[in-house]
Structure formats: C-alpha cells, structure tokens
Amino acid sequence: MNDDWITRDALIIVKAYPNPSSKYFETVCVAAITAEEGWVRLYPINFRSLPEEQRFTKYQIVRLRMKKHETDRRPESYRVDENSIELKGEVSSAHNWRERWQWTRPTIGPSMCDMVTQQKESGKSLACIRPRVVEGIEVEDGETEWSDKKKSVLDQLTLFDPADKTKLEKIPFIFRYKYLCENPACKGHCQSIIDWELSEFYRRVRDQGLDREGIIAAVRTRFLGDLCGPTKDTHFFVGNHSQYPASFMILGVFWPPRTAQTDLF
Ligand SMILES: [Zn+2]
After folding, report:
1. Fewest CB atoms less than 10 Å from the CB: which of 12, 158, 195, 259?
2. 111 and 140 belong to one structural domain
3. Which residues lie at CB < 5 A from ion ligand 1?
C-alpha cells in the first residue's frame, strides 16, 4: 500500500540549499504542504537538472506524483516522480499573504519546545512554529570549501553535465536564529538557517563587494530587521535532521504582516 504513487497538488514552502551527496548527487530537499497530508518532504529532487518548465519557485503550486520514501522513515518523507512535476499557479505576489495563510495555518504548532519533547512519540519532523521573541542571528565561520568527498561528487557532476558551468558554491558561514518559542518555560533555541533564500542573499551581497562584516550586517538587516520586525507576524518553518531527530533546523521564514492574520478571523 505504501508503495503506491499518489497525485497531489503541493504548495512549495521551502527549498533547502543543495548538498552534494554521493547517493543522490546534487539534490534539494523540498518541504511542501498538501491539503491531504499537511507537511510533506520531497526528495531527492535534482532541481538543477530539471528542465526550465519544471523548475518551481517558493509558493508555487505544483502537481506531482509521490510515494512514501522507502528508506527515510520520517512520516512526511516522500519520493517524487520528477517527470510528473507540473507547475500550477503561484501564490507568490506580495499581496497574497491571505492565501498563503490558508495553506499554512493548519500546519502551525506545537511550540518548538513541545516539538522536541514530543518528537520521539510523534515522529513529526516538519512544522511551522511561532517564535515568541527573536533574540538575534548568530554567525559562525564555516568551511569555505566542500569536503574532499563532496568535492568529488561535484566533479563527477560536472562530468555528467559539462554544460552546467555554474558550480555549486559553499557558503562560508553558518547563520543561526536565536529565539524563544511560545512555550512559557522555553530556555531558548539556536538553530541553523538552511533556507536557499539566505544562500542566494549571501551571494548577492557578496557580489556587491561587501566584506565579511558587511555581509553579516546585511544578513542581519534583512533576516532579523525586516523578516522578524515588529510589523511582521513571523513564523519559522522547521525540519529535523534525519540522523538526529531531536535536532531541528530552520528551513524557511514566513513573515506576513501582523494584520493579515487577524483579518481572517
Ligand atoms: Zn522553546
């Protein structure tokens, strides 16, 4: 039964930055919402090898065939029939928060603290949570190069696809959101941000010639000042690590204006 392919309309919520993997080559982990299953994790998807007409964006509705992932036991994980990917409408205009809310609202909760304590029992590995207070963004210098193992995967990729000149880049920083969740007893969370948008933002400001401090300041202005500002009803999309289920990362940020949500009631 679990091997059955099913066809779904899924709203793409996050694309996590690709990671060279010897098993799947360069793949993307996508988190999406379906009306039937709620959160789904779709992988592997060889996004950069998808033809243009199948390259979905964030907040795009995609029709696809999927089936339960046979090796990843997390309940939300599905394998995708890449050939079936068909782009539908986009819910991506800046004024479309209301429609995004309609998809996102049923997936909210519980608090991050509760997610962690309930994880073993629930197996839940994807969620939308609301930070009570975002305290800051911490920065750690990461590796500037891929490990040798990952580099060899990338080299093989280039062999397979010599037309692809855009070499996948390693972002030399690890950014983490430090925040308190809605649980009143929360002692704080510090979770790495693996949102593709942050990587793209990094490349954009780096290409403007900013130095390390300038890049970090720009990231904080955007991801703290703008996305978590007082006029925003900020939520985080979180997902866990398959090997460390109690360890969650921030896959994306949802930042509707504060009024959009209250309008719905
Ligand atoms: Zn907490």
Report:
1. 259
2. yes
3. 112-113, 181, 183, 186
State the Cα–Cα distance between residues 258 and 208, nearest whole angstrom. 32
C-alpha 32 – ligand 1 centre gap (Å): 24
Collapse the DSSP code of 110 into the 3-class scheme (helix H, G, I; strand E, B; otherwise coil) and give the result. coil
- d(Cα 46, Cα 80) in Å, to the nearest integer? 10
181-210 residues labelled b (16+ CB within 10 A) or e (exposed): bbbeebeebebbbbbbbbbebbeebbeeeb
My answer on whether 204 and 224 are in the same domain is yes
The pLDDT tens digits for 13-69 are 987 755 555 454 455 678 999 999 999 999 888 777 788 888 888 889 999 999 998
For residue 184, the CA-to-ligand 1 centroid distance in Å is 8
**Length of the chain counted residue by residue:** 265
Same domain, 50 and 152: no
Contact 264, 101 (CB under 8 A): yes
How many other CB atoms sit within 10 Å of the CB of residue 86? 15
| pLDDT level of residue 158 (50, 70, 90 thresholds) | very low
Q: What is the pLDDT of residues 208-253, one digit of tens each?
A: 999 999 999 999 999 999 999 999 999 999 998 777 888 899 999 9
* pLDDT for residue 245: 84
Domain hosting 37: range is: 6-90
pLDDT in tens, 122-133: 889 999 999 999
Q: How far is the CA of 225 from the centre of ligand 1 (A)?
A: 21
